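Project standup — Tuesday

K.O.: blocked on the structure for the chain from last sprint. Re-posting the sequence here as requested.
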Amino acid sequence: MGVRTDPLAEKHDRGSLFRDQLEELSGYLRSEISAGRPLLTPAPERDLSSVVWVAAREPESIDAAARLGLNFVVGQAEHGVQQRHYVDHFRAAGGTGQTKGARMVLVANTDAEAHVHAAAPAWRTFNQMKNGRYYQLAVEQGRIPTSEPTDLTDLLQRIEFVAGSPESVAAGLRRYLSDTAVDRLDIMVHVPGVPHSAVQRSMRLFARDVAPLLAA
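H.V.: unblocked you, prediction finished:
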């Protein structure tokens, strides 16, 4: 996980230190011999650098992840169209590792049923996010209106919460995958405030109905 040093970071510019440590870690995981760096004991049986995922926004740190052959993750906080810039940068820098994003997901039998369980958690999440730098940057760039959300659909889109029937969730995740061009997707099903029974049903419906639609 990289320390942000782009305009989203106001303090603690430690990007250079992070890149040095990232290179050192990669060397250990690859059992590379270097002056002043002892080998791991016991030595890894294979190159373990493939398990490393780098989350960074600073161009130099994305370049480092690409150069070292590591994986790259863009996470949950931003809209897919914004994350695409970082994924494209990683590929343009020669990145051969995998790329991954994440979305909050709630699946129910119908859109209406999902929205009943998603509404209160979505508003709580929005109130936490709206003062954050990611959200404010999206407003400054015109990707999000300055006004409050007009309805639940608007709210869910602003916080990137994909909630609905299996067909609606599959469509929303397809859009996200297309927007970002990531190779893999993590889903976050335990959104704070969603009832436990709804979370369990969401996981079952995702495995049974949504995953096959995405695979197709």
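K.O.: great, moving the ticket to review. Confidence is low (pLDDT under 50) at residues 1-5. The radius of gyration is 20 Å.
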